[in-house]
Amino acid sequence: MKITVINGTEKRGVTYQLKEIFLRNFRGADVTEFYLPKDCPSFCVGCTNCFLKGENSCKDFEYISAIEKSLIESDLIVMTSPAYVMHATGAMKALLDHFAYRWMPHRPAPEMFGKRAVIITQCLGAGAKSTAKDIKHSLSWWGISKIGVFCSSLMSDIVWDKLSEKKRKKLTDKINGLARRYAKINYAKPAHVKLMTKIKFMFCRLIQKKVRKSGAAGLDNEYWDNNGWLGKSRPWKS
Q1: Which of 72, 128, 162, 168 has its CA 20 to 30 A from that of 99?
Q2: What is the pTM of this model?
Q3: What is the rounded CA–CA span in Å between residue 227 and residue 204?
Q4: What digits encode the pLDDT tens for the residues 158-183?
């Protein structure tokens, strides 16, 4: 089993500890981790080269290609981020911006439709749910249907060792519960693709068919046509 972890910060705080506890439930798994911003240090500048010329034309292709390769080869994707001003870290948002070309209206990777993902967030006060929503929004538009979410709120301290034993146990039990559910899954079988994911795909398909009919086909449209998605092929059936 292969797991890819993308950490929204290099800081090894409570979110890091929760992620480590989660991973302990997957003994023998091949785990590849990326830490932001170290493994993707630059912002997306909105040049649109990934849309118009291809992802290999991105100025940060060296970083993005390595992360994407690991994501596509993995059985489980784990995304972690503490809440920064009630949202995902700037480094995590910068990474997600780089993958705009993998959104369904553009060139979604067919492998993503059968994948599973887990989002781990925590905050001091409020913001864990909105942080998870930031990440889940992108994952769902990549085509992932099975997304587990762990959210926790701290009201006292943000250092794991300074939390009360009761609080640490509560968090540990909760994250272990989520991990055990995902550890029991048979990853040889693709995840079930939800109806909403299929509806999103079919809506994007209609747009691409109109583009094809107008004669304004570009890189995205050619990608859809080459995959057979403008016909009867579907990414969740391949």
Answers
A1: 128
A2: 0.95
A3: 14
A4: 688 888 899 899 999 999 999 999 99
